Amino acid sequence: MSELRKFTEAELPDFIEIVLNAYPGTSSPSQEVRDRMLHQFNEIQTDDESRELFGLYRDNKLIAGMRIYYYHMNLFSKMITVGGVGMVAVDLLHKKEKAAKELIEGFLDMFLEKGVNMVLLYPFRPDFYKKMGFGYGPKMHQYQIRPDSFPKGPSKANLRYMTAEDKERVRECYNRYAEATHGMFLKTQPELEAMFKNPANRFIGFEANHELKGYLLFSFEKKSTTNFAHYDLLIKELIAETPEALMEISTFLHSQADQVHQVVWNTQEENAHFLINDPRNGSHNLIPSVYHESSLSGVGLMYRVINTKGIFEDLQDHSFNAVSLTMKLSIEDTFLAQNSQELVLHFIEGKVEISDSADYEVEVSLDVSDFSSLLMGVVSFKELYQFGRAKLSNLASLNTVNRLFLTFDKPRCISAF
Question: Which of 136, 201, 206, 359 lies at a C-alpha separation of 20 to 30 Å from 99?
Fold first, then answer.
């Protein structure tokens, strides 16, 4: 029998050993690293409302552990509580013994008990977690841009350096952006502190009428061991509430052309190439026939609905594009049996009600992983149907069902966990 429970302070060093062995490429096993991790883990367990550490024990022996997160996420303009999991680490001697599976099962159960309907994670292997019911989130695009490709506006007059005294103003700016952007999380206190603790970080903000309306968090990275003047500027966080804020930040980046080789920008903005003058990344690669390589793209954040009925209750005030339809939704969830549900959903001019009636116009059937991505607006129903990932009882309803779930604003999330 296995036991999943929160770590005590005395048990944390054992978990540190498991983490260092499970992720040898992320940290050295030095005593300095161990001491720093122990300090961080102690802070999490004693003074952090947004994170907790849990261990998995068999026969009273620690074999694995994880870090869980408590977030507030914008789901189509409604802030809901969601759960996150990270640092899933298994003792090398106990790999392939289903310890990771038990951790994720325990993670899902924890948040079901709390009445949470959706959870998220960053996968070490997307295919592994897709089998557990997690669906793909939006892609991240990495642009490597010459600084002078950013547009030069008329002014940088409203930019200034940000200091630790500006923490609350930064939080307020970020949270306003999050509350206006589908998929974003509210900023947690540990995230806010980390932005100012790292000595490599530089921070500038845009002020208008004495209010912070945007900011740029960045650092520099050397590109040569022999040329001290050859380096890139790495954008870590760019928030712009207004076009004016974005233009002044863009002007700042443009002005770094005399020293910066490239600006590295990781963004979920699919159309970033409309902002910059030259979207090419410097590789000079062509994709047939003549498509210039502009960015690298990656799959990362994954969503999972753990209570299908509950998530529609969260969305009672959301407008499903003014569609009127009675639909039977059949969700297959092989990992979380209680979420294999059949619901009859009555949409009246876009508003949803869960119906007790057995009558419906069309049935939609799909796996919970694809449903999670569909619900968030990452992928359209038409695409899932075309790929054979969704079934539809009446083909004449394809466009209606597609419009039902269609969103013009794909989710965005820049929180790392």
Answer: 136
* Contact yes or no for 394/401 (Cβ under 8 A): no
Q: Looking at the structure, tell me whether residues 284 and 333 fall in a common domain.
A: no
pLDDT band for 292, please (50, 70, 90 cuts): very high
**73 sits in which H/E element:** strand 61-75
The total number of structural domains that make up the chain: 3
The residue that leads in pLDDT, 224 or 284, is 284
Task: Say yes or no: 313 and 289 in one domain.
Answer: no
* Residue 152 neighbours by CB under 8 Å, 6+ apart: 250, 251, 254, 255
* Together in a domain, 178 and 251: yes
How many CB atoms are located within 10 Å of the residue 321 CB? Answer: 16
CA distances 338 to 96, 210, 230, 311, 342, Å, are 26, 52, 56, 14, 11
Please state the pTM of the whole predicted model. Answer: 0.94
Both tokens assigned to 363? 């049935």
**pLDDT, tens digit (0-9, with 9 covering 90-100), for 38-48:** 999 999 999 89
CB of 369 closer than 8 Å to CB of 134: yes
Section 9-36 average pLDDT: 93
Strand 118-121 to strand 302-305: parallel, antiparallel, or no bridges (unpaired)? antiparallel
Which helix (H) or strand (E) segment is 308 a member of? helix 308-314
The pLDDT-based confidence of 268 (bands split at 50, 70, 90) is: very high
Whole-angstrom Cα distance, residue 236 to residue 216? 8
Q: State the pLDDT at residue 110.
A: 97
pLDDT score of 223 more than 90 = no
Distance (Å, rounded) from C-alpha 192 to C-alpha 119? Answer: 22
